[in-house]
Amino acid sequence: MNIPFLSFQGMHPGIKAEMMQAFSEFYDGNWFVLGERVKKFEKEYAAYNKVEHCVGLSNGLDALHIALRTLGIQQGDEVIIPSNTYIATALAISYVGATPVFVEPDLQTYNIDPAKIETAITAKTKAIMPVHLYGQACDMQSIMNVAAKHNLFVIEDNAQAHGATSQGKLTGAWGHMNGTSFYPGKNLGALGDAGAVTTNDAVLAKKAYTLRNYGSERKYYNEVIGYNMRLDECQAGLLSVKLKYLDQWTAQRKQIAAWYDEMLKGTGDIILPAIHQEATHVYHLYVIRTKHRDELQNHLAAVGIGTLIHYPVPPHLQQAYAHLGFKKGQFPLAEEIAATCLSIPLWPGMTQSQTAQVVENIAGFYKK
Questions:
Q1: CB neighbours of 368 closer than 8 A, spacing ≥ 6?
Q2: pLDDT digits (tens, 9 = 90+) for 277-288
């Protein structure tokens, strides 16, 4: 048996001719940086995400970095983020000299708990950065209410949730500026690194356009100290092709998740994903939890089923953030999730039979 954790076979072969055509047009066009393909994709993705502006960038981390810089977040400031997130969320804050402030998640949805945000706000707090973890939308209205009350910016980390909604509104459309990733394994993935920021504010969008390109609006004239963080023209062309299929692939992800929900119900001590009543989930990852996580992962690996752990070490316990002085036990919910979570295979094209084989082998582990 070989069921990989991630496979592109349900996506890429069927669109190969379109992708090759897009590459051929890029190659023959002899314009390789910030051309018409980037502009086209920015317009298309903004329309998809129902926002006014999309600024194409080099990757998701750079998108969060540019969003923070655009909003003027700087040294001495604090930004609130969930205690259970990928390290990139915290790194972007460190890049601008600010300090990440961790808030525990809701143990059901794994997203930041809005009820706990206010206690973390200080005079130094400038922004809240919710993460739509694993593909489920955060409770954005509650977060926006807290932000408005305290005059804070909101920057959504939308790297895992293209197409998800909170209270009927798309993720990446709530915040003042929002960062997303098009890393190959994401629901909308390039064939290399790529990312973007989204916003409804024309002034912020213009500033982000300038920052991504050496701080320059006009070639060789630099208004501010900027970066080289541009979306690649080739990747933009390929993303335009894949964007047309995103909803179709998302529907497949939801179907596979539904199969898992039904077949895994009542299996051992497994905790299945829970969906907030006003949120939708696009299943970038299907994450189960069990106290026997490591043994289950080893069992599945032995029979050829791939899994991953998202994520084994919370940011506050990473060596990179040892200088913040956090100790084990300070964020127990994040640590509990890190010790018990396991992401099992889910990708467009995965069949019901393959899903059943994964479930059968999980059940077999518990029968032992």
A1: none
A2: 999 999 999 999
Question: Using an 8 Å Cβ cutoff, are 337 and 133 in contact?
Answer: no
The single-letter DSSP state of residue 367 is H
Cβ burial, residue 157 (10 Å; 0-12/13-18/19+): buried
Give the residue ranges of the chain where pLDDT is below 70.
none
Question: What digits encode the pLDDT tens for the residues 112-121?
Answer: 999 999 999 9
Q: CB of 227 within 8 A of CB of 55?
A: no
Give how far Cα 149 sits from Cα of 117, 261, 360, Å: 12, 38, 50
Q: Partners of 170 in the beta sheet?
A: 165
Q: Give the torsion through C-alpha atoms of 354, 357, 361, 364, to 10 deg.
A: 160
CA distances from 318 to 90, 146, 336 (A): 11, 29, 15
* Single pTM value for the model: 0.97
Cβ–Cβ under 8 Å, residues 57 and 41: no
Six token digits for residue 247: 């909803």
The span from the CA of 201 to the CA of 217, in Å, is: 18
**Alpha helix ranges (H) inside the chain:** 16-29, 36-48, 60-70, 87-95, 140-149, 202-212, 233-243, 246-264, 293-302, 332-340, 352-367
Helix, strand and coil in the chain, % to nearest 5: 40, 20, 40
Q: Minimal CA–CA distance to 157: which of 263, 65, 36? A: 65
CA distances from 177 to 101, 129, 203 (A): 19, 10, 11
Residue-wise over 274-305: b if at least 16 C-beta within 10 A, else e?
Answer: eebeebbbbbbbbbbbbebbeebbebbeeeeb
| Dist. CA 138–CA 287, nearest whole Å | 16
Identity of the residue numbered 193: D
Residue 29 per-residue DSSP state: H
Distances (CA, A) of 75 to 62, 69, 126, 134: 18, 11, 11, 30
Q: For residue 1, what pLDDT is reported? A: 80
